[in-house]
Write a structure and sequence with these properties.
174 residues, alpha+beta, three-stranded antiparallel sheet, 8 helices, 3 strands, 55% helix, elongated
């Protein structure tokens, strides 16, 4: 019995720790872990397409960093994508340097919040502050192009869900 066992699996009996060690070293565990990571990455790529473009090759590294701090707890990938946006926002404040990342992750997070199922009616309006002109930035990213330069146009967008279930965005403050 080592202190490492207690740290990894506190409260387990020696038999349970032995079974856990055996399962962790079982043939195929690495393949299973790779498949799970690939599935999780695929969901992030699908749910955050603009963030994917902004981060480019750095997305996988940021996803790994996020997963090391946030092991999967459910199969609700919308929740994980929202948490990944929050992770990236925190990383921006830690020095992750990427043009447009702050406003793009805020926008995609708001889009996810609008899609989140809530009992009792539509989701509340979501507001996103933009520094760069969203009329130029968002279409370029949708074409999978990171524009070299986007003019400044500080404004606040508000997103809502209309009665037909469509997302609607409008400028509420310039």
């Amino acid at each position: 019995r080592t202190s490492g066992d207690d740290t990894v699996a506190p409260g387990l009996t020696p038999l349970e720790r032995s079974r856990l060690r055996s399962a962790a070293s079982a043939p195929g565990m690495h393949v299973t872990a790779t498949l799970i990571s690939s599935f999780r990455l695929g969901k992030l790529l699908t749910l955050l397409p603009l963030t994917r473009v902004v981060l480019g090759d750095r997305l996988v590294g940021e996803a790994r960093r996020f997963w090391s701090d946030h092991p999967p707890r459910s199969f609700y990938f919308l929740e994980e994508a929202v948490a990944f946006c929050d992770h990236l926002q925190g990383r921006i404040h830690e020095g992750l340097d990427s043009p447009y990342l702050e406003e793009v992750t805020a926008y995609e997070r708001a889009m996810l919040e609008l899609r989140r199922v809530r009992p009792g009616g539509p989701p509340p309006p979501q507001r996103v502050r933009f520094v760069h002109d969203p009329a130029h930035l968002l279409p370029a990213l949708a074409r999978r192009e990171v524009p070299a330069e986007v003019g400044m146009r500080p404004c606040t967008f508000e997103g809502t869900i209309d009665p037909d279930g469509e997302t609607r965005w409008r400028v509420v403050a310039a």
